[in-house]
Structure formats: structure tokens, C-alpha cells
Amino acid sequence: MVDAGSIIRALLASGGEGGGNPLLEINPGLIIWTVVIFVVVVIVLGKFAWKPILNVLKQREERIRESLEKAENVAAEAERAMAEQKAELDKHRQEMTEALRRTREEAEKGAQELLDKARAEAAETAERARRQVEEERNRAIEQIRTEAVDLAMAAASHLLKKTMDSDDHRKIVSDYLKDLPTNLQQ
Length: 186
Prior knowledge:
Structural class: mainly alpha
């Protein structure tokens, strides 16, 4: 392979042999033809190549601009949709919280109603039991009174049948007291 340093050394070395390096010499004819060719190339490129190149660049620029606008529109739409979704989510969350609160209140109200009903029934049952106990007590007292009257009448008739002294009186009361539990059972 040939490297750039060896080419430059070869050109410099050949400059000492004849009249110098033809690339380094100023040649007016070569300069004129170079300028003429350059101008012709620019005119030809301007007439045939620049317009299509510029059109392609404009079209590319327009596509890029449209893509950027679409991206901005999509981003704005996505942001709007996210805001709507967040608002909808907040609305549903608030509705759910309200429904839970109402359910809790209804449950507490129902529990309180059940508790009040149970208390009323318990109070009614207690009152009924108290009345029943009072009636039973009154019946028992009435029965005891009746039996006490019967016993007193029996004791009086028994005492009236006998004339007694204090020893007889003690014996009758003592016998009567012994027989009292059997008399109460009848």
C-alpha cells in the first residue's frame, strides 16, 4: 500500500529534476478552464439537480414538521385523556366513598333499630315476668291467708271443744305445730 507521506516525498523529489512540480506551478490556461467548468457545473446543477434536491429537502422538512405537530397533538390528546380519566377515577372514588358511608350509616341504623327492638322486647318480657311473679306472689299470699284462716278456724274449733289448762294449751299448740307442714301441703 502506498501512504500519503510517500506520495508527497515522491512529488517533492521529482520537483528538482526538471522544471518543478506541474501541480504547484501557476498555469493561467488551467485556471480559466477550471473556473469555466466550475461555473458550467454550478449552472447545470442549479438547473437540474438543485430544484429536486431542494424539493426533497422541503418535503422532508414538511414531513418532520407534520410529525412534530402530530406528536404534539397526540401528547396533548393523551394529556387531556389522562386528565379526563383522573377526573372520572376521582368521581368514581368519591361515589364509592359516599356509597360506603351510606351503607355504614344504614347498617348502624339497622343495628340500632335491632338493638332498640331487642331492648323493648327484653323490657316487655321483664315486665311480663314481673307481673307474673307479682300475680304468683299475690296468689300465694291469698292461699296462705286462706290456709291461715282455715288453720285458725281449725285451731279455734279444736280449742273450743276442749277446756284446757295451760299444759293442755301447750300440748295442743305443740301438736298443731308438728302437724302444720302436713296441713300446709293439703
